[in-house]
Design goal:
Order of helices and strands: HHHH
Helix content: over 70%
Strand content: under 5%
Number of helices: 4
Radius of gyration: 26 Å
Oligomer: single chain
Amino acid sequence: MSVTPEIAAERVEQLILLTDRLTELVADQAKAFESRRPQDAVRFVEETGRLANLYRHESTRVRANPALISGAPAELRKRLRRSSEAFDAVLARQARAVGAAKTVTEGLVRAIAEEVASQRHRGVSYGSTGIQSRPAAATAITLNKRA
């Protein structure tokens, strides 16, 4: 089945719109993490997930069959390439922001666990041989997944 230039152009325009919207959403999420307000990123999760799945599906189709967009005007394909490059850049930005937030969070959890362990009352006990027994190791901390 051949793809007419009109259909190819329409598909490219739709891909540009999809890519640009995803870029906006991911940029907003990155801003939320960069401003140390990850809770603000939650409002974008559902739409981002839905559009990312659609983007993955459509980009896989185009990769498998480049003829789907090859009939589109060169200027439109160039715009799609620029949109894709901008999307890749914002994904890298978000990865850095999320990575930094993860590092900070892990450090906080580790510091809290160490403080809890140091605050525990450690009674001195002796074993049957008269040797002082070792204190118990710190226990795990359970976190709320919504936090």
